[in-house]
Each structure stands twice: as C-alpha cells, then as structure tokens.
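Example complex used in Figure S2.
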Amino acid sequence: MELAFYLSGLAAVLATLGVIANPNPVHGVLYLVVSLLAVALVFFTLGAPFAGALEIIVYAGAIMVLFVFVVMMLNLGQAAAEQERLWLQPRTWIGPSLLAAVLLLTLISLLWRDDIQRVIEGGELTAKGAGTLLYGPWLLLVELGALLLLAALVTASHVGRTVPVAAPKPAARDMPTGDADQPQPPQQPARGESSSPAGKEVL
Amino acid sequence: MNGVPMEHGLVLAATLFALGLCGLMFRRNMIFVLMSLEIMLNAAGLAFIVAGTGWQQPQGQVMFLLVITLAAAEASVGLALLIQLYHRFKTLNIDVASRMRG
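Predicted assembly (305 residues):
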C-alpha cells in the first residue's frame, strides 16, 4: 500500500509537470487526466475509496471532457503550439518557478518542524459516514453547493452566448507577437476603396 | 514500515499546489491558466482527504465534495469566458484582455 502511494504520488507530480510545461493544449489536457487519475489512486491507497471514485467520475470524467470539447471546438492547430513554444522561454518561467519553489520549501520545512506523529493506516472511510454527516448537521453545505451550481449555470449560459458584438480594439502592444519587445508594425489603413459593406467589424 | 506518515501526503499536496501556482504565473494561454487552477483546487482537495483519513473522520470527504462542486462551477464559468475571449479577439492570450472600458 505504501509503495502504491509513493508511486502514484510520483506519477501525479510528473504528469502535473507535463501539464504546465507542454506547448500543445490537447497534450496538456491528457496529462491533466493522467494526473487526476494518479491522485484518485492516492485516495484509494489512503483508504478513501468514495473520494477516489468521485475524483474519477467528476474530475477526470466530466470536467476534463468539458476541457477536451472546448479545445476541439476552438480547433487550435500547430500554430498555437508554435506560439506556446515561443512563449516558453527560460526567462519567462525562471522567476515564477523560483518564487513557487521558495513558497514550497517554506511550507515543507514548516510541515517537518512540528511533528504531526500521525500515520495513515488505510482504514476504510466509506460513503456512509460522509452521507450521514452531509445530510445531518452539515445540511447547509448541500444548500451552498446547490446555490453555487445554480449561479454557475446562469453565469455560464449568460457569458457563453454569442451575440454579435463589436470587439474593442486591443492596443498594439497587447497583440500576440510571441516576442514582447518587438513592436507590432502598424496596420496600413486601406484608404480610398474601403467600400466593403462590413465596415464595422461584426463578430 | 506500516502506513504512510501524514507529512508525506501533505507534502504531496503542497508540491502539486506549488506546481499549479507556477503554471498559473507563467502561462499566457487561457486554457493552461484554467488547467493550473484545476490543479490547485485538486491539491487542496487532496490535503482535505489526507487530513480526513489521518484522523479517521468523514469531514475531509465532505469538504472534498464541496471542493469538487467549486471546481465544476469554476470550470464552466472559466470555459464560457474562454469561448468569449476567442470569439472577440481570435486568440487565447489573456494579455489582450488587460484593458477595461468605460
């Protein structure tokens, strides 16, 4: 059981590294699915099979399929991967990585300093305990979850609608160039024969 | 050796959280930003489960249920925003949406 815990933890960390360092969105989503399955295996080895099953069904099954659908719908091709590869220069990721490493080392040293002295033996925690707690004294949490999901449903269906809106023009320095230092060449305004009927841009 | 020390589970959760934070800071594609947020929420849920199994109490699993609900709501709203960003700007670079109007 311990070996399974350490192996699946290692797989989770490696797959998460694959997510954050991958230029291709589809590969990133698939690495994230592997990471979530490894975390579900960690739950099983710790003795929480209900949480592991929920992780597989809801996270890896529903949320990640939503991500895959969106990536398929946007039809990002090789050009997007090339753009990502241009953005992933070492001078981009070294600073954030150092900051996150400092935070992680602080957290780990704090965890090691005070002894928790507790060993997870792997006793089963079934869904029964969670259910009686959830529908007994913690009923407010069910209401909160329902309210949250309803708000998310309304927000997603309001934000996700596609009505024709005139897009605000982004500033030249915000346009995707791949290299932030190099200024974008200004667009040549087509003077004279700008008689196209779609004068204002309708998306 | 019998059983996993609780520190190891918490260190795993902290490592996953730090990796997600790192990705959140240096990626510019909105899909990867949303995926990093999912990683961080998942690491928080892992910490809840580790604590719940360490003390043999079911409260950890109940909080994990709430974390999963939050992640589902966040993913749906975030993906709707992503689709709007792509419709308006034809790119997924979140830097193009850094200006406010009005």
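Residues 2-146 of chain A form a domain with the Four Helix Bundle (Hemerythrin (Met), subunit A) fold (CATH 1.20.120.1200). The beta strands of chain A are 119-120.
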